[in-house]
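Subject: Re: docking follow-up (magnesium ion)

Dear J.,

Thanks for your patience while I sorted out the input files. As discussed at Tuesday's group meeting, I've set up the holo structure prediction with magnesium ion included as the bound ligand rather than trying to dock it afterwards. The sequence and the ligand SMILES I used are pasted below, so you can double-check that they match what you have on your end before we go further.
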Amino acid sequence: MKFFDEAFITVQSGDGGRGCVSFRREKFIPRGGPDGGDGGKGGDVVLKSTSQRRTLYQFRFKREFKAKNGGHGQGQRKTGKNSEDLILEIPPGTLVKDAETDALLKDFTRPDESYIVARGGRGGQGNYRFKSSTHRTPRFAQPGEPGQLLKLKLELKLIADVGLIGLPNAGKSTLISVISSATPKIADYPFTTLTPNLGVVQTGWGKPFVVADIPGLIEGAHKGAGLGIRFLRHIERTHILIHLIDTSVIDPQNPLAGYNTINGELAGFSQQLADKPQIVVLNKVDLPSTDRTAKIFQEMLKDREVLLISAVTRQGVEQLISKIIERLDRFREDEQ
Ligand SMILES: Nc1nc2c(ncn2[C@@H]2O[C@H](COP(=O)(O)OP(=O)(O)OP(=O)(O)O)[C@@H](O)[C@H]2O)c(=O)[nH]1
Ligand SMILES: [Mg+2]
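The structure tokens for the complex came back this morning:
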């Protein structure tokens, strides 16, 4: 089970620019003094936490980052250009470690923190700096200081954006396994999932988000029945809940029974969880005669939008993901 998203990257700060060796050459001034300028500073590599990022997914593709070198000094005491810093954005909650020693370099607990992880080299001094009464024509200058090369391990404790809830066997683990990289156990009996699974969902279009699949809830869970409600705290900080229902077991005589049971358990745990926005999803619509029961359910729950999916055939799954992204984007806007 993986609760951490992690990435290994290499960062390199820029080398300082070389100091210049040069002598003034002007008409009528036969012996102009040294006028080689200093090199510019190499760019720093800076890590910056931002609430715009939720995962370390970006580092799956690009893992090497190098800041630019400083400009070299030039004649007429011209200083080389200082290079811009290279800023890498990471999600809050990231631990930065030296990959070789495992030493903790920085713990980003909040958004908008910055940390210089590799300092750019200083520029070398130009030869005019070495002029003295005993040394009028220094024919040397300093090289720039080299940048630092570091291997980093980034570790992010995943905080779920979306919680998956439902009765045992609703297909929660199946759903997380088709939309994310998580590989939970799936089986045709209740309480297959014993501890939560977290998965990062990455689509081609939206920002990645994290889903938590928790063990199924049953009537009386808040009083300790089944696996109880101790896993609900894992989804207390999510923005939305996906309330997943197995359409094939809906009783047409009492279609909302299971739905109400789950909501009752959430309320038994905390008001906060009961008030959390839900997307109601009827699963397993590939099974026979589910269209009829799905319709009955929808009729009974007219004031809510109810999505129909099959986690197995993936019917409706893309629409569900779009809906989640749309809702999460709204939360992220509100957070700004
Ligand atoms: N036909 C069909 N079967 C499904 C679908 N989704 C899940 N299943 C099956 O339903 C059973 C239960 O699926 P799980 O994903 O383990 O259910 P769960 O909600 O995680 O169950 P617990 O962990 O026990 O709470 C498995 O046999 C799945 O193959 C679906 O869309 N269609
Ligand atoms: Mg499960």
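A couple of observations from a first look. The helical segments are 172-179, 257-269, 271-275, 290-300, 317-335. The mean pLDDT is 91.

Let me know if you'd like me to rerun anything.

Best regards,
T.
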